[in-house]
Amino acid sequence: MSSLALPESSVVLSDTRLLARTMTPYAGKDTVYLKQASVFRRGTEVVGVGRFEIAESCYIEETGHFNAVEFNISYNQLIYYTLAAAVRDRLIPELANWSMDDYWERQLPAVLISEMRSRYRRPINSRAYRAELTITDVEFRHRSRPLIALQTRVDFTDDGVGSAVGEVEIVLVDPPTAAERAR
Description:
- By secondary structure, the chain is an alpha+beta fold.
- It has a single domain, classed as Thiol Ester Dehydrase, Chain A, CATH 3.10.129.
- Helix content is 25%, strand content 36%.
- Mean pLDDT is 87; it is low at 1-13.
C-alpha cells in the first residue's frame, strides 16, 4: 500500500468545501473523523485516500485503539467523499449521468453497505490514522429494481504499526432515472 506511505508533500490536499459538505450528516453529532481526503484514478480503479483523527469515541469510553465501529464510520465517511468526488469529476462511467444534486439527495438513503468483511492485523492508534479505499468494480444490476453495486477494498494504518483491512460491497439503490435527469 505504497500510496499511504507517500511523503506529506506528495499528498493531494482535500477539497475542503466538498469534504465539509460530504461530512454534513456527521457534523451535528460531532463524529467527523475524516479530516483530509483526495480521490484519483489508478488505471481502471478509483481510489480515495483519507487522514482521520478520533479525539473522542462517539459511543464508548476510550479503548485505546481503532475498533469495528470506528472502521465502519471511517469507511462510510471515506466512501461518501470518494463517491462525491467521483460524481463531480466523472470518474466512474456508471455514474457519469449523475449530477451533484442527484448525489446529495441520495447520499444517506441510497448508499448502502450490502456486505462487509474486515480483519484487524495489529491495533491502530485511533488518534491519527489513514486509509486507502479502492473501488475495484462497478456493476449495474436490475433485480426487483435497478441498482449499482460497487466492490471496494480498504486498508487502514497508522504510523506503519497498526493495520486493518476490509472488503465492502456498496449498493446504490436509487439511481437517477432518465426522466429525473431531463428535468
